[in-house]
Amino acid sequence: MVQTSLASLKFRKRGQGAMDIAAQDMILECGLDEGTPKTAPKPVRLLGSYSPAQDSQALMIYLHGWEGSQDSTYVVSSARHFYGYGCSIFRLNFRDHGPTHHLNEDIFLATRFAEVFSAVEQICALDPKRPVYIVGFSMGGNFALRVARETIKKPIKNLAHIFSISPVIDPWPAAPLVDQGLLISRYFLKKLKTSLRKKQDAFPHLHDFSKALEMRTVMDISKVIIPKYSAIDNLEDYFNGYRIAPNDLEFCQVPTSIIMAKDDPIVPPRAIDELKLSAMCQDIRLDYGGHNGFFQSIFGPTWYDDYMRSVILNARR
């Protein structure tokens, strides 16, 4: 729990660094929304922050966790670390995360993968001569693994390695854990309700979350929202829609590191046991680290920062 809490504490990203000064907001158009009975298909727009480095050695794409953003502490602290080593940084926001609720009429769903993959393709094209590394945390780690799966059919030439940290592999056992434990449940419930209010304020003619906002658990809110604001009838179908299935990475061609902690209070690490991994995938399980934690000291770098740096350095040799 200490490791998990430290991952998001704001004091770790105090002040403004060189990466923040170089940051440029960028909106990517990522295909068409499928639309709903209330809305017609419209271009999907995702916001990101791009910090190009002088004499860039590599480009790193950061994918945050659920209800996080480009400014999540674990994203910023790691990204600053690698910007200092000469890597360009792109921190992508998922739909309805960070300051993006006004960009798209329809709500965020973890099953909306095509728009994220489109964004990744466009980001990789920003620096086509440099190797690209994807770093995904929690839900972002799930998206990162789905990128690995998708590149079996749609290769991205300069994608060099994918790092999936504390990923949600099977949402069924993971989702109820968000509502267990006072600190975790309060944190995510507050975040989710704040997000729903922002979406409702941005599109009051489309969204009325009043019933959902009365709920006291994330799972109860999900049971109300998913059938009403999507074409998905129930939570089982929704969770299955973004689950990493046992065979998804069996033929993965991109080097992929899956980093999990045995003491993760949010994502059960045993979910990885079901996966058939190709020789390009590495299953890394540490005894301690919590969720998105992996601290060696309070101020970092984290264990995964050191590990990723070693992978990048070895690739240059």
| Estimated radius of gyration | 19 Å
- Category by helix and strand content: alpha/beta
Instruction: Assign a percent range to the helix content.
Output: 25-40%
**CATH architecture identity:** 3-Layer(aba) Sandwich
What's the overall average pLDDT, rounded? 93
DSSP strand count: 8
Question: Residue ranges: pLDDT <50 for 5 or more in a row?
Answer: none
Write down the overall geometry.
globular
Main sheet record: 8 strands, mixed
Query: What is the top-level CATH class?
Result: Alpha Beta
Number of domain units: 1
Your description of this structure?
The chain has 317 residues and is of the alpha/beta class. The protein has a single domain (2-172, 244-316), classed as Alpha/Beta hydrolase fold, catalytic domain (Rossmann fold). It is built from eleven helices and eight strands. It has helices at 2-8, 18-22, 73-83, 113-124, 139-150, 171-174, 182-202, 210-213, 218-229, 235-242, 303-316; strands at residues 24-32, 43-51, 58-63, 87-92, 132-137, 159-165, 256-261, 281-286. It has an eight-stranded mixed beta sheet with strand order 1-2-4-3-5-6-7-8, sandwiched between helices. Helix 3 (73-83) links the parallel strand 3 (58-63) and strand 4 (87-92). The radius of gyration is 19 Å and the shape is globular.
